[in-house]
Write a structure and sequence with these properties.
single chain
Length: about 80
């Protein structure tokens, strides 16, 4: 499964990077705003930004009791 992930995820991220750069170049090079290139940029850039955030952010740590007991009793009542 690890080999499968490596073979799928890395080319996908490379394609996201290339598509983001390509759409940004065409978006900035035109005189007027092109909705097609803007839509392309909006569709591809968040995935690349999320993966960049995951690589830059530190390892997530939680406390021993991550859920506040008061929240657990109030949340089912719909008062959160």
């Amino acid at each position: 499964m690890a080999t499968f992930k490596r073979l799928i995820i890395m080319p996908y991220l490379l394609c996201c990077l290339l598509a983001t750069v390509h759409s940004l170049i065409y978006l900035l090079s035109q005189d007027s705003l092109s909705l097609a290139w803007l839509g392309s940029f909006i569709a591809v850039a968040p995935m690349l930004a999320f993966m960049f955030y995951l690589s830059v952010a530190g390892v997530g740590r939680t406390s021993r009791h991550p859920v506040d007991p008061g929240f657990v009793t109030i949340a089912p009542a719909g008062c959160y």
